[in-house]
Write a structure and sequence with these properties.
Blueprint: H1 3-18, H2 22-27, H3 29-33, H4 38-49, H5 53-66, H6 72-85, H7 93-98, H8 104-120, H9 125-131, H10 137-148, H11 158-165, H12 170-183, H13 191-198, H14 203-216, H15 219-227
Length: 228
């Protein structure tokens, strides 16, 4: 449906709502959540926030379709809306995975997709672990970041994150080290890799490594931090 057609449909439903047809208005919610009009989006966001999980789940298929839009702004707002829906949007995970390397709106689309996983819940972890082995570098970077959002719940990903943290790409190393720190004590097998990162020339990587080691907190870690 084109932008004009969407606006026309929404306008018709505003009239229908005035006449008592809330169902028509609700049917346009996905389109209003990605509207180019900020006021329309804000009103739709408020409406979404007042819905229960069952009602939210009903609009996920439509939002999933919008995630595939050619319009990068639509994809961005759709990803944000899916994240706001949370666990009820788990059916959108496969499409969101494909968006991890979306360059739209100068990569904010990919970041919106990355952020959505932590809100949807741990069902996304196996998908993200698979994405961490993807051939696309940006996909791997954002998958590592998303895994970190789950904290200890992502402990199954520790071996993959350790491997990524010891790789050559600085961005992937930074994301992976930060994720390991968020996982905490369950990431203790990462200590040798983190100690090496602590000695790296990159200041941000050093910072993430220091925080990660502190969060893991084993005697070996504390000794390494004392020597720093």
């Amino acid at each position: 449906m084109g932008r004009f057609a969407r606006l026309t449909a929404a306008g018709g439903c505003f009239l229908a709502l005035a006449l008592g047809s809330a169902a028509c208005f609700a049917a346009t919610l996905p389109e209003r959540l990605v509207s180019a009009d900020e006021r329309v989006r804000e009103a739709a966001d408020g409406e979404l926030g007042g819905m229960d999980a069952a009602a939210k789940a009903k609009i996920v298929p439509a939002l999933t379709g919008l995630l595939k839009s050619k319009d990068e702004a639509v994809r961005y707002y759709a990803a944000r809306a899916v994240g706001e829906i949370g666990p009820a949007a788990k059916s959108a995970i496969p499409v969101l995975i494909k968006m991890l390397n979306d360059p739209g709106l100068e990569s904010n689309v990919g970041l919106a997709a990355t952020d959505a996983f932590g809100r949807i819940g741990p069902e996304a972890i196996p998908y993200l672990m698979k994405a961490l082995k993807d051939k696309d570098l940006e996909t791997r970077r954002n998958a590592a970041s998303a895994l970190g959002d789950f904290g200890p719940a992502a402990k199954a990903a520790v071996p993959l994150l350790v491997e990524a943290a010891g790789g050559k790409d600085l961005g992937l190393r930074q994301s992976s080290v930060r994720a390991l720190g968020r996982i905490g004590p369950d990431a203790k097998m990462a200590v040798p890799t983190l100690i090496l990162a602590l000695k790296d020339k990159d200041a941000l990587l050093q910072s993430h490594a220091g925080e990660a080691l502190a969060n893991i907190g084993t005697p070996e870690v504390l000794k390494a931090l004392d020597k720093k």
